[in-house]
Amino acid sequence: MLVQTSDRHQPKPDRGWGILEHGSIALVTIVVLAIVGAMVWGLWGKKSVAVETSNLQAIVTNAQQLKQGQGGYNFTSGTTMTGTLIQIGGAPKGMTVQGTTSSGTATLWNSYGGQVVIAPVAANGFNNGFSVTSHKVPQADCIAIATQLGSAGAFSAITINSTAYNDGVVSTELAGKACSSDTGMTGNNTLVFIHNG
Predict the structure, then answer these.
(1) 41 pLDDT exceeds 60?
(2) 109, 98 Cβ separation under 8 angstroms
(3) At residue 140, does pLDDT exceed 70?
(4) N or C end of the chain: which has fewer CB within 10 A?
(5) What is the enclosing helix (H) or strand (E) of 107?
């Protein structure tokens, strides 16, 4: 006995997903990756500000070891003071040292690729203070670093590019006006922090 089957009851072959389903999944994947990428980039920016702020604070703490009693910071230049700070192990671990550490002539660089110089500052005929100058700071980080360190009261004066704040206090608004825009991915700002004592 032969059984006939109708064409209606035969299962149709699986043709897979159509272009719309693939396109929707690809679009959702791209959107998720873009959101995650933006969050990572934002966290990276916050990390660099925290690292640079911490590095500058560590430099100030370590540079105070260079004071020679009543004679103050007796160095002929920023090159020799920076080199000596590196020589005694005072360079923060988050910064790059170029040159031979033990030579006394090595240089210090921030995470933006800008040189950092520690130099004696004269007041009343004595080098009782010093400055910390950081170059090539991006605009957003310039505002954040100047504001954070300008509210801590640790510095007697702060200069952003050519704008000096002789009381050492910098608000976000003032920093926003003084910090210049970047050129591509390169920062154009120079921060100078002066510490007396």
Answers:
(1) no
(2) yes
(3) yes
(4) N
(5) strand 107-109
